[in-house]
């Protein structure tokens, strides 16, 4: 299915929110200016572009794997459906999730591959997979997972040091050998005609985990800048990933690292005529890690927590419970009304602007 994931020109007259461009190789080399740029982006908006990170070949091949998965007959894909209990690995059929407090159904489908399964292949840890995954696990899927994991873990180490935490504090929450909700996810959204912002593909939210690495060839991602009541598109840049902070790092840091509200809507203008494909790697803490601010290990974090509402960064949940709850409460089968939707909340502080999905 050639051409499905190629880039289309982003309309120049569509307002976008600028992101800092961070050079991964300079950060790895310890360049102080580049590290400062990364830190500023992570603490102010929580989003940035990443370049020079040596994963583009794997990304291209992962899009091919994703297209082969989605092309399978529906009855075959449904053998790997996530279910309604908060299980994060496998296939999600379009319409299985709610998008707002009125129970509006979503229109996208995706497939999520567990980090644990990829690294332990051919021994299943969480689940088995369809043939397009199995036949390319060793030469495509596992190399992508390993590289994406290495990138995100290195950036987490940088944040660890900038937060004044003892060496390895955050790394200990993200041990490769321990089970976690880390996933590689391929997402397909259908072409869309009409007002691009009428019905988002993914409703306004914060990410569940620690760090997200996104590749998309069309527009559609929108961020809500701090203090704003308006969402802005983020323009995809060829050869760049879009990174963002998730809830776990926000909590560990006492809110210093920002987990910003964002959503995915149909691509702008004529881009909306095409299927939108994206590839995401979500790094999440190990399942047993309690999500709480690391105040006792960092004066910076302790001060941030002291200035926050009491208990804000003491969730009382493990990373697995946090992720499972948010997956579970998005499922149509579990939706009982507006109160159910409130259970889906993450770390978002800002009231999400009222959305009307036609």
TrEMBL record:
<dbReference type="InterPro" id="IPR026992">
    <property type="entry name" value="DIOX_N"/>
</dbReference>
<keyword id="KW-0408">Iron</keyword>
<dbReference type="GO" id="GO:0016491">
    <property type="term" value="F:oxidoreductase activity"/>
</dbReference>
<feature type="region of interest" description="Disordered">
    <location>
        <begin position="334"/>
        <end position="358"/>
    </location>
</feature>
<comment type="similarity">
    <text>Belongs to the iron/ascorbate-dependent oxidoreductase family.</text>
</comment>
<protein>
    <submittedName>
        <fullName>Clavaminate synthase-like protein</fullName>
    </submittedName>
</protein>
<dbReference type="GO" id="GO:0046872">
    <property type="term" value="F:metal ion binding"/>
</dbReference>
<dbReference type="Pfam" id="PF14226">
    <property type="entry name" value="DIOX_N"/>
</dbReference>
<feature type="domain" description="Fe2OG dioxygenase">
    <location>
        <begin position="178"/>
        <end position="285"/>
    </location>
</feature>
<dbReference type="Pfam" id="PF03171">
    <property type="entry name" value="2OG-FeII_Oxy"/>
</dbReference>
<dbReference type="InterPro" id="IPR050231">
    <property type="entry name" value="Iron_ascorbate_oxido_reductase"/>
</dbReference>
<dbReference type="InterPro" id="IPR044861">
    <property type="entry name" value="IPNS-like_FE2OG_OXY"/>
</dbReference>
<dbReference type="InterPro" id="IPR005123">
    <property type="entry name" value="Oxoglu/Fe-dep_dioxygenase_dom"/>
</dbReference>
<keyword id="KW-0560">Oxidoreductase</keyword>
<keyword id="KW-0479">Metal-binding</keyword>
<dbReference type="InterPro" id="IPR027443">
    <property type="entry name" value="IPNS-like_sf"/>
</dbReference>
